[in-house]
Design a protein that fits this description.
Layout (H helix, E strand, L loop, with lengths): L1 H19 L1 E9 L9 E4 L5 E3 L5 E6 L2 E8 L6 E7 L8 E3 L12 H19 L4 E16 L7 H6 L8 E15 L3 E13 L20 E4 L3 E6 L10 E11 L2 E10 L8 E7 L5 E9 L9 E12 L2 E15 L2 E15 L12 E5 L8 H7 L6 H17 L2 H11 L4 H6 L2 E5 L4 E5 L2 H4 E4 L3 E6 L2 E5 L5 E11 L4 E13 L4 E13 L8 H10 L7 E16 L2 E14 L32 E13 L4 E4 L2 E4 L6 E9 L9 E15 L5 E16 L35 E10 L9 H4 L4 E10 L6 E11 L2 E10 L2 E11 L2
Parallel strand pairs: 1-7, 10-20, 20-32
Antiparallel strand pairs: 1-4, 2-3, 2-5, 5-6, 8-9, 8-19, 9-10, 11-12, 13-14, 14-15, 15-16, 16-17, 17-18, 18-19, 21-22, 22-25, 23-24, 24-26, 25-26, 26-27, 27-28, 28-29, 29-30, 30-31, 31-34, 32-33, 34-35, 35-36, 36-37, 37-38, 38-39, 39-40, 40-41
Length: 811
């Protein structure tokens, strides 16, 4: 009863406070009457404020009373207005005058460098000055089509994109409200309160406050998706090596002497900004920034990106961003577009009392209600008004979205999606979905279903997969498999199943049983399709196979933050196989199915045996961060190496098991370690040893991800030229390192920069006891999106083994 009364009292007080507030509206224009987009409007001495929209319209909720309102926009003089708020206060329009920065006597060319040096000296201190805070963040992003080739913009395409009669219109519109919590120097947590999106985003977007932490006090300014290298801040520690500076003038604003300094990149095509930066006198901190990059700097997706950021004094010597605005434009195959992303920061709390274990690795929390806020909610809570065009677009897309949720439309869409496309099925997965039941039945493409090898001859490997989804990320999958070889006349059947019952902890049980034809190399380096092509057309039957009749059960679950446990036990009856056909489109002499004796299948590689195997692993990501949504948990890329420890045991005598061994392995891997303007590095090191090898069968040995074909998969941990079956041992050490320069060199070469190629260098190493104890590869390459071309050379010990080209196409 007491709790109910408290809840009722809180509700009444909330209604009263809301009723007392007045929405002040107005328009910010220039002296010529032109709208000033994204102007900041806030109450002097507080962090209560808002920003204007693209047409200069703003709205701010205030309690009745007298206020000093500050209006700021980069390129204009700051304006302070005294205003009294009451229930009948009319709209308050203001005009901003162009900024008037004047040079003083003695402001020579060297003064800009003196100011920048002092700002650089303060950079690290200002980066760490705020120990912790919380604030509210509102983000809106819009992408608009400006023009398109008439030959491509057909009426059907224009209708699909919801464009106007002139072929223009909003392609994508999104907004979100979040509470952002920060605990220096590295911990943060965003609680997304509301989110709304309409349309298709084809450029880039920041819909999360965690992604919009624009900070020029960092040496490298990262713009995710636009360039993997990042850009050098104008006040980075080594900024003087990359920029020239020019003092444009000074002005006094809010009691601060402000220097306006032009930023000039020394290399037009370098990872640098151009524009203006505003520095305060005495404390040498950033007051405003107006910087931009263009396609000359090698950015993707857009041609020009402008960044405007304003800082405000919170209290004492503490400053934080008031707003940030990205504006961009681009041209893709004649489709010209532009857009903006606005971030508005308000209601800072510099002394937050975070609960214990609040920063537990969850960096973004999104609950069920976040994306379900209706138009009435947004009308009451949207801090920045929509432009008329944006309001019309939302209204149109909301109406269409409601229509798309009707059973009639879903049934129609389902029928269309489930239509069988015989041509597409050759290369792509075909699926049958049921939107209401949240189920899907998928069939692998034909090129993966029909195969040829020298053991089975022509064959069919039919493996559909059924998936059923529930709330909160729970789901189960069932995948039956039928495989038949026409040469050896063997029918194999098996079924696999998994049930993910706790998505937040990555908890899953899984299992499979039946019979199958498997690669002798447990790393499965040879794809079935590539082996079919190489066998039929290039006289190379690389794939070596055996048969297994098995039962396997396992489970996985997070045991602690960043610690994933996986355990499984398997019984298998295994048989070696021999070649049964020599058919090919060219006269060929194939190798046997025994990699130890390539000229003959006999003696066979191993006799029929039973194996009971226990395998457990623990994978640890230091300081693992993740996003929680109603659909489950999604891990963020780790800033630290991942460590995986694996133990595998062959259990003797149980169920007639013939194997007896103990194997341990440790792996350290990290992907995309950023190295500033020089791109990023990926590496993996692994070591393993059989501590007991009393009874080992060939498939139990440690195998490696070799490659003997023209194509390859660029995954860290794989080799370019390593033979598939030559290297297997009882102990080993391997290492892989690769660096992607992300266009650092090619962007400086006139004939190549237009291609936006990324340069790659790398090396792979493997050592083990025996004759082939040292193997090394070195390679260079270049890539663009899904295409990559490498050239490399390999050595077995000091002797050159192989060199050549490797191609990747990730369609």
């Amino acid at each position: 009863m007491k709790n109910n009364l408290l809840l009722l009292f809180a509700l009444i007080m909330t209604i009263q406070v809301s009723a007392q507030q007045v929405v002040l509206t107005g328009k910010v224009t220039s002296a010529l009457g032109d709208p000033v987009a994204f102007a900041s409007v806030y109450v002097k001495g507080t962090t209560q404020g808002t920003a204007g929209n693209t047409e200069g319209i703003y709205q701010l909720k205030l309690n009745p009373g007298k206020y000093h309102l500050i209006y700021r926009a980069i390129g204009y003089k700051q304006l302070t207005e005294d205003i009294e708020i009451s229930t009948n206060t009319p709209g308050h329009a203001v005009q901003l005058q162009k900024e008037d920065y004047q040079l003083k006597p003695g402001d020579n060319g060297d003064k800009a460098y003196d100011i920048i040096r002092k700002a650089i000296g303060k950079r690290a201190a200002y980066l760490a000055e705020t120990k912790g805070y919380s604030c509210n963040v509102y983000i809106r992003g819009t992408q608009k089509l400006i023009s398109a080739p008439k030959s491509l913009l057909t009426p059907a395409v224009a209708t699909q994109l919801m464009l106007g009669p002139d072929g223009k219109g909003i392609l994508y519109l999104s907004e979100s409200q979040s509470q952002f919590n920060y605990d220096g120097p590295h911990r943060y947590k965003e609680i997304m309160v509301s989110s709304k999106a309409a349309g298709n985003n084809n450029a880039f977007n920041f819909n999360r406050a965690a992604d919009l932490q624009v900070n020029f006090y960092k040496n490298i300014f990262d713009i995710e998706g636009l360039n993997p290298r990042g850009f050098i801040s104008p006040i980075a520690d080594r900024a003087l090596n990359y920029y020239d500076y020019k003092l444009l003038g000074t002005v006094i604003e809010s009691g601060h002497l402000i220097y306006k300094i032009q930023v000039l990149p020394k290399l037009v095509h370098g990872a640098t900004f151009a524009g203006n930066i505003y520095i305060t006198d005495g404390d040498w901190r950033i007051y405003n920034a107006h910087l931009y990059v263009t396609k000359k700097a090698g950015i993707n997706l857009v041609d020009t990106l402008n960044i405007d950021q304003q800082y405000m004094n919170l209290q004492g010597d503490v400053w934080q961003p008031a707003s940030v605005a990205f504006t961009f434009s681009g041209n893709v195959f004649g489709f010209r577009f532009d857009g903006y992303i606005l971030g508005c920061y308000t209601d800072y709390n510099l002394d937050p009392k975070f609960p214990d274990n609040f920063f537990n690795g969850e960096v973004v929390h999104i609950d069920e209600q976040t994306a379900r806020r209706d138009s009435a909610y947004w009308s009451q809570n949207r801090p920045v008004p929509l432009s008329p065009e944006e309001a019309r677009n939302y209204k149109l897309r909301d109406a269409i979205a409601q229509q798309h949720e009707t059973p009639k439309y879903l049934d129609s869409l389902q029928r269309e999606k489930n239509k069988f496309n015989p041509v597409g099925y050759v290369f792509f997965v075909d699926s049958v979905v049921n939107f209401r039941r949240k189920t899907s039945l998928s069939f692998p493409p034909l090129y993966e279903t029909v195969f040829y090898n020298t053991v089975e001859g022509w064959g069919i490997n039919f493996k559909p997969a059924y998936n059923k989804q529930f709330e909160y990320g729970r789901q189960y999958s069932i995948a039956p498999n039928l495989r038949y070889g026409f040469a050896n006349k063997l029918l194999n059947a098996n079924i696999s199943a998994s049930y993910a019952y706790d998505a937040l902890n990555r908890a899953m049980v899984y299992g499979s049983f039946g019979s199958d034809i498997l690669d002798i190399n447990s790393e499965s380096s040879v794809s079935q399709f590539s082996n079919t092509i190489s066998t039929l057309f290039f006289k190379s039957n690389a794939l070596k196979l055996y048969r297994s009749r098995y039962l396997r059960i396992g489970l996985q679950r997070d045991m602690a933050r960043g610690l994933l446990f996986d355990g499984q036990i398997e019984y298998a009856k295994r048989n070696a196989l021999v070649n049964n056909t020599v058919f090919a489109f060219q006269n060929s002499t194939f190798t046997s199915n025994n990699p130890v004796t390539p000229l003959t299948d006999y003696p066979i590689l191993f006799t029929e045996n039973n194996a009971v195997t226990l395998k457990v692993s623990a994978t640890y990501n230091f300081m693992q961060e993740y996003t929680t949504t109603p659909a489950g948990r999604f891990d963020a890329p780790s800033k630290y190496p991942q460590i995986k420890i694996t133990y595998r045991k062959g259990i003797k005598s149980v169920l007639g098991s013939d194997v007896d061994y103990d194997y341990g392995e440790i792996e350290v891997i990290q992907d995309r370690v950023k190295t500033g303007v020089y791109g990023y590095t990926s590496y993996m090191f692994k070591a393993g040893n059989f501590f007991n090898n009393t009874a080992l069968i060939y498939p139990d040995y440690k195998q490696f991800k070799g490659n003997q074909g023209l194509t390859f998969t660029p995954v860290i941990g794989s080799f370019h030229f390593l033979p598939y079956y030559t290297y297997n041992s009882t102990s080993f050490l391997e290492g892989h390192i690769e660096h992607n320069f992300s266009g650092y060199f090619f962007n400086r070469i006139a004939g190549l920069r237009v291609l936006k190629l990324e340069e790659i260098i790398g090396a792979n190493y493997l050592t083990q006891p025996g004759d082939n104890h040292n193997y090394t590869e070195f390679y260079v390459g270049m890539q663009r999106f899904f295409f990559r071309l490498d050239y490399g050379v390999s050595y077995q010990g000091p002797t050159k083994y192989q060199q050549g080209i490797r191609i990747y196409y990730g369609f």
